[in-house]
Amino acid sequence: QLRKPVMVSISFLLSVCRYPLGMSGGQIQDEDISASSQWSESTAARYGRLDFEEGDGAWCPERMVEPDSLKEFLQVDLRSLHFITLVGTQGRHAGGIGNEFAQMYKIKYSRDGSRWISWRNRQGNQVIEGNRNAYDIMLKDLEPPIIARFVRFMPVSDHSMNVCMRVELYGCEWLDGLVSYNAPAGEQMSLEGQPVHFNDSVYDGAVIHSMTEGLGQLTDGMCGLDDFTHSHVYNVWPGYDYVGWTNESFPNGYVEIMFEFDRTRNFTTMKVHCNNMFMQHIKAFRQVVCYFRSEADWEATPLSFSPVVDDVNPSARFITVSLANHMASAMKCHFYFADAWMMFSEITFQSDTAMYNTTLAPPKTASGPPTRDDPTHKIDDSNTRILIGCLVAIIFILVAIIVIILWRQVWQKMLEKASRRMLDDELTASLSLQSETFAYSHNNPSSSSSSSAPSEQESSSTYERIFPLGPDYQEPSRLIRKLPEFSQSSEEMGCLHSVSMKSPYCDGVPHYAEADVVSLQGVTGGNTYAVPALTMDLLSGKDVAVEEFPRKLLTFKEKLGEGQFGEVHLCEAEGMQEFMDEDFSFDISDNQPVLVAVKMLRADANKNARNDFLKEIKIMARLKDPNIIRLLAVCICSDPLCMITEYMENGDLNQFLSRHEAEGQLALISNAPTVSYSNLCYMATQIASGMRYLSSLNFVHRDLATRNCLVGKNYTIKIADFGMSRNLYSGDYYRIQGRAVLPIRWMSWESILLGKFTTASDVWAFGVTLWETLTFCNEQPYSQLTDEQVIENTGEFFRDQKRQVYLPQPVLCPDSVYKIMLNCWRRNTKERPSFQDIHRALLESQA
Ligand SMILES: *[C@@H]1O[C@H](CO)[C@@H](O)[C@H](O)[C@H]1NC(C)=O
Ligand SMILES: *[C@@H]1O[C@H](CO)[C@@H](O)[C@H](O)[C@H]1NC(C)=O
Ligand SMILES: *[C@@H]1O[C@H](CO)[C@@H](O)[C@H](O)[C@H]1NC(C)=O
Ligand SMILES: *[C@@H]1O[C@H](CO)[C@@H](O)[C@H](O)[C@H]1NC(C)=O
């Protein structure tokens, strides 16, 4: 059932740079949201946040929107330049009272706050289709993407109507810092009698004889194909992706491009994506000479670089020009012709410490959508030369792909090493940077109280915070500091310092005010459960005492996992029986050591990490379910802080199943231990039951997988969370930009693309976990797809044009159970079953 993998067709930046920028998450401050007018104080601009229900439920302008009038707008100031790839809009629902929405809207944007540019799509249309009802969120890809600091949403209508809007922007910070490029206008080539246009069709500045004050195709994240007459983009003229010039028009032999930046930057490199179809007299440049301006004056000595002129390989490529740490706020480069034509499709800049690793981008050898009807795609059969040319090109592409794949692997290793080193150095960095793994998530208290079903409970987790590109959004401490609890210093926290002086055993976990607590990240293993504020009310009902365990009774056995701020060890504990209350199902004889998992915070962890660790203890202490790992005891009187949780004798479910086989002929021959189908089902049912418990508390797990389930006697299962740094499973996590690691093969489309983690995304992960279980963890999910292809497939789930690839039905899996899986992977989160439903369905499937 698995279709052939789809080629990756968009750039890494375009596919990954899709993080909510903070309208719904709250990182955008109220004062940065403004509007042309407001109908009342309770429909002011600040209520125009997607998914928010405060005030009267949305921003509404004072007047009705009239046809052909563009008076009203909602404006967002992002405080710095951003690369924006996606917008979301929603109307005013206000729990059923409101029914206003914008059926259509336009977007204007500005980089400096004074010059405003109307966004147009690649076909030149400005109008974006908006909402059809007052509650659904409508997401629209921006093609081309926008690079701007200010964005205005302008509702439009073909008749007079009342309009209200809630919006969100998706993207990431624009690290290039490029504000404009000025260049001679692109020219026109005549190819076999047909014109090929190399103009910059999405340039947003002025174009008369030359292009001034704008950005366009050279910064749209879309690299041109090897064959310049073809394009990724549907229904455009030949030469669309490139801006090109002929040496006939430039007697000096070079094209001058001027680049202006937002501020003075310390430049490391410039990467220029060039076409190199030398058979058509197109080559990358022969030499580039760059002049730098930092304050008012141009530096006297330019920098010069001559790449090797390549007349062997016709594929388009990035040429990297080292800018040797020049400080500049503007740059003027002369690109010298190596042949009659020179064509660029993309120019990127790397400066300061921040860097997009665009060179790691997947190859741009996309075959477009199959439905595409491309008149330039005809191949003249009689013309075998072209055919051979194509074959040669394909071979080159394949070679390039192989080289890139190999290179990526080397890179990944290096990045991993580098980031580990970096992490060690950054212990004092802000709490956000704990997200070697996931960021914790936070739920707006007021919005959560109004939402209804538990599956709607959304920990609007924001892995933009772990995305290393946006320093603004890497600062959850900003949010956390607002909360009374976190504003306390750890010195005030019970026994940590003072009490421990007095008594060797402290009286349980320190407790403190628990107003509207956000969830947090596990500081040792990885993420812990996300806990929305609502839940904390439930939790704060009774205090659960967890006792201090004498550290010397722990014997280290092996390391189970590792996070940025600590480690998880497998230990034997003596005398643990005293610490277990009667409802523990351990049936061990007295005084025999028990296997336990010990999460340990490094002694040198910073204050925030310590606070979080104590918080995690509090949360863990209250989770009581037969299918969830229990907290047994803690060591918090002295460093390093530890929490001791259950461990189960058969290890994790992934390893357990890998050692076993299905009952049947094969197993008889190989003599391997077996697990019957009904026991597999029994285990899956227990996972569903544990998740049902977590979801009833509105906890979001975010890393449900067989590797995080433990197996005890008689196929009992308990859900745990060891974090993502276990070497054994490093292949299950995808490293974004060398830092953030995400279990993309288990993640729902909305978690990957929008950073949303909800019970519904846990349900998705459960579907994958169920699939793993029924395939005996023989292979990784989507093992035929590369990480990039998995992300691409995610895009297909998002687009929902029936081109998404599902995991195939396991041999052992009856239709009824496969149907459960498919339901878990529904595009619409509301259509996915709840864990209650899944649990019931699994029980019924065994009956
Ligand atoms: C670029 O050339 C195409 C084809 O001639 C034309 O349709 C389009 O309007 C031009 N765009 C700009 C911005 O000049
Ligand atoms: C630019 O960055 C490099 C490397 O980080 C550093 O060595 C150099 O001193 C910086 N230059 C200036 C002028 O700050
Ligand atoms: C343009 O380049 C071609 C090929 O290198 C060369 O033959 C021609 O003389 C050049 N024309 C000008 C005006 O430099
Ligand atoms: C990109 O790669 C460079 C090495 O060229 C690395 O130092 C840097 O950390 C990477 N950037 C990010 C944002 O991960």
Automatic annotation (TrEMBL):
Keyword Repeat: no
Reactions this protein catalyses: L-tyrosyl-[protein] + ATP = O-phospho-L-tyrosyl-[protein] + ADP + H(+)
Gene Ontology biological process terms in this record: ossification; positive regulation of neuron projection development; positive regulation of phosphatidylinositol 3-kinase/protein kinase B signal transduction; regulation of extracellular matrix disassembly
Cellular localization per UniProt: Cell membrane
Enzyme class, first EC level, given as a word: transferase
Classification via Pfam families: DDR1-2_DS-like, F5_F8_type_C, PK_Tyr_Ser-Thr
Domain Protein kinase intervals: 554-842
Tagged with keyword Glycoprotein: yes
Gene Ontology CC entries for this record: plasma membrane; receptor complex
Record membrane topology: Single-pass type I membrane protein
Molecular function GO terms recorded: ATP binding; collagen binding; protein tyrosine kinase collagen receptor activity
EC number: 2.7.10.1
Alphabetic keyword roster: ATP-binding, Cell membrane, Disulfide bond, Glycoprotein, Kinase, Membrane, Nucleotide-binding, Osteogenesis, Phosphoprotein, Receptor, Signal, Transferase, Transmembrane, Transmembrane helix, Tyrosine-protein kinase
Region listing for Disordered, in residue ranges: 360-379, 441-461
Entry's transmembrane regions: 386-407
Residues in the signal sequence: 1-22
Family matches, as InterPro entries: DDR1-2_DS-like (IPR048525), FA58C (IPR000421), Galactose-bd-like_sf (IPR008979), Kinase-like_dom_sf (IPR011009), Prot_kinase_dom (IPR000719), RTK (IPR050122), Ser-Thr/Tyr_kinase_cat_dom (IPR001245), Tyr_kinase_AS (IPR008266)
Domain F5/8 type C: 17-172
PANTHER family named in the record: DISCOIDIN DOMAIN-CONTAINING RECEPTOR 2, TYROSINE-PROTEIN KINASE RECEPTOR
Subunit structure: Binds hydroxyproline-rich sequence motifs in fibrillar, glycosylated collagen, such as the GQOGVMGFO motif, where O stands for hydroxyproline. Interacts with SRC. Interacts (tyrosine phosphorylated) with SHC1.
Family: Belongs to the protein kinase superfamily. Tyr protein kinase family. Insulin receptor subfamily.
Name of the protein described by the UniProt record: Discoidin domain-containing receptor 2
Native organism: Oncorhynchus kisutch (Coho salmon)
Name of the gene encoding the protein in the UniProt record: DDR2
